[in-house]
TrEMBL record, chains A, F:
It holds the Pfam family DsrE. One of its GO terms (molecular function) is sulfurtransferase activity. GO terms for biological process: tRNA processing. It comes from Chlorobium phaeobacteroides (strain BS1). Gene3D superfamilies: DsrEFH-like (3.40.1260.10). InterPro entries: DsrEFH-like, Sulphur_relay_DsrE/F-like, Sulphur_relay_TusD/DsrE. It is found in: Cytoplasm. GO terms for cellular component: cytosol. The lineage of its organism: Bacteria, Pseudomonadati, Chlorobiota, Chlorobiia, Chlorobiales. Signal peptide: none annotated. Belongs to the DsrE/TusD family. This is Sulfur relay protein TusD/DsrE. The keyword S-adenosyl-L-methionine does not apply.
Automatic annotation (TrEMBL), chains B, E:
Pfam families: DsrE. Belongs to the DsrF/TusC family. InterPro entries: DsrEFH-like, Sulphur_relay_DsrE/F-like, Sulphur_relay_TusC/DsrF. PANTHER family: PROTEIN TUSC. This is Sulfur relay protein TusC/DsrF. NCBIfam families: PRK00211.1, sulf_tusC_dsrF. It comes from the Bacteria.
TrEMBL record, chains C, D:
InterPro entries: DsrEFH-like, Sulphur_relay_TusB/DsrH. It holds the Pfam family DsrH. It comes from Chlorobium phaeobacteroides (strain BS1). One of its GO terms (biological process) is tRNA wobble position uridine thiolation. It comes from the Bacteria. This is Sulfur relay protein TusB/DsrH. SUPFAM superfamilies: DsrEFH-like. GO terms for cellular component: sulfurtransferase complex.
Length: 119, 121, 97, 97, 121, 119
């Protein structure tokens, strides 16, 4: 099955980002395709490369980057939501991309499921 | 048309206290260009988004209530409002900025179940 | 002590939680989505009237206007941001989120 | 349609709102802070028992464990993230935030 | 000492669903070094932060419940738990990780009123 | 009177940031001193200089910067909360500063009031 994920909250502050990641990981493990993670609202702050959590904690931006690298998951941040919150090409992780809401519409259309995580 | 998807946006937050309703509306306006079968359900505090007479000058935040009136021009015509949510808040259709279809929770629940995609805001 | 509440009572239990800790005489200020609690003739009106027997209740007018709320429950005092500052000048603040 | 709830029923009305829209037969999955709803013998247990007459109820085990919740209300099925994926495979998803 | 302030931290959120309790705890640990009159009140879902047997391995988030046990070593000894919040959640003192003082809402309300600063988490 | 502000949410997503600003503005207008705005939790994202909202909307980062410039309000982001969320010296506005929680303790001690805004 082909799955899109919509993530509406930033890293660490809410569990949404962790739940989305764990869900994506499990879906891939079960042989499904995770097509894209679309970041909206505060979710766009998931992909800033300046993130520097304590060493014994998870690195959320790095984790999304790896999901992109290893499994071809597109990690997309909405441009309008990003601009408001200071997320730009200058601060984004390698596998992250800033794009429009049209892309989310495509994701909603081309996937079997769109699963939302937020607060 | 086989590849037209039924997509419902669910508005459940009061306006201004958080951005979810406003950014939800921005999403709907973009999706409207893609000729899918869009609808918007206002339930819980989401019904407040449609309240007349909102004037945000005093809080320094851009108002967006009137943008709901533009939805019609984008061919987003399926606006459903939960009757119980309205009544619980002492509101009637006359308090709302736009023409909507007032339905019971069960009727909206049934519509939700027909959707290919439900997006919460 | 000034207590502030910024959550809609329809969606959150913050209002009820706050009220069970507030001491008699202490003012309560509703702001942001909290102002829906003071809309006239809604299901929280009688609860508020009861609270106002012991505690003064305020609501931030700019937040009421932003949400298109006209009449407020009798006895509720509306203030602007400067009135909010006045309340803070008179009291320490306990913010209920 | 799979309905997911991630809010504590003690602090938010999301649980009650969701339930008034859910159609008979549709599964409900509690995750994140939502799992407090299924803790055995709390004040939502009888409400849940009633719901389970018409709808299957699931809770995410990793979230229960994270919160130190042992026993869940009779009839609630616990699943891990892969079980969550299975539910998504069977149903479209309606996320209640 | 005239310049010792009474500062109360109020924990009102369940752990893990959001970071507020955890970052609140980090704040308390730093403030503890400043020799102010600190206290911590656990009310509403905040009481869940002290629940025994939390194991966060499955959700991939660092656990912090045991850090509450370290508060004593930082001389943060005034831990108040709201009786009604515990009871409403079917919990007793035995379910909690640390020794606390269980008080009524009114008693905690009175303590709040004696504070110079109340910080919500 | 001397007032400290604690702001626990990021810009735009919640009204907290706007309420805090309006309150600070009114306090200054009434002749009080707003000593500092301390940013905690997601609040640290208030001060990223890459913020670029629509032209007809408020620029929240710029607004905090001006409050610092014109009225000497210290705009301080907690370092631990900032590191988690990718806020670093590279992205912060001119008048913003990253500092420790000890500074918040000082603010709580030296001000007549500490007023919190959040969600």
């Amino acid at each position: 099955m082909k799955i899109g994920i919509l993530l509406k909250e930033g890293p660490y502050n809410h569990q949404a980002s962790d739940s989305a990641y764990k869900f994506a990981e499990a879906a891939i493990k079960k042989g499904h395709t995770v097509d894209a993670v679309f970041l909206y609202n505060d979710g766009v702050t998931n992909v800033t490369k300046h993130m520097d959590p304590p060493q014994d904690d998870r690195d959320i931006a790095k984790r999304w980057n790896e999901l992109g690298e290893k499994h071809g998951v597109e990690v997309l941040a909405c441009i309008a939501a990003s601009k408001r919150r200071g997320i730009s090409d200058e601060v984004i992780i390698e596998k992250g991309e800033i794009t429009g809401l049209g892309t989310l519409t495509d994701i909603a259309i081309r996937n079997d499921r769109l699963v939302t995580f937020g607060d | 048309m086989e590849d037209v998807k039924k997509i419902m946006h669910v508005m459940r937050r009061a306006p201004h206290g958080s951005i979810y309703t406003y950014e939800g509306l921005e999403m709907i306006l973009i999706m409207a260009a893609y000729e899918q079968d869009l609808s918007v359900a206002f339930i819980g505090d989401g019904v407040y988004a449609l309240k007349k007479d909102q004037d945000t000058a005093g809080i320094g935040i851009k108002g967006f209530a009137k943008t709901f009136m533009a939805l019609d021009g984008y061919d987003v015509e399926k606006l459903y409002v939960d009757k119980a949510s309205l009544e619980e808040r002492g509101l009637t259709e006359d308090d709302l900025l736009v023409d909507v279809e007032v339905l019971t929770s069960d009727e909206i629940g049934k519509l939700m179940n027909e959707q290919d995609v439900v997006i919460p805001h | 002590m000034l207590h502030t509440i910024n959550k809609s009572p329809f969606e959150s239990t913050t209002f009820e939680t706050c009220v069970s800790f507030v001491q008699p005489g202490d003012p309560i200020l509703f702001l942001e989505d909290g102002v829906y609690a003071v809309q006239a003739a809604n299901r929280f009106s009688s609860r508020l009237e009861n609270i106002m027997k012991t505690n003064p209740v305020y609501a931030l007018q700019p937040d009421l206007s932003a949400r298109g709320l006209g009449a407020v429950t009798d006895g509720v005092t509306t203030v602007d941001y400067e009135g909010f500052v006045d309340l803070v000048e008179e009291h320490q603040v306990n913010t209920w989120l």
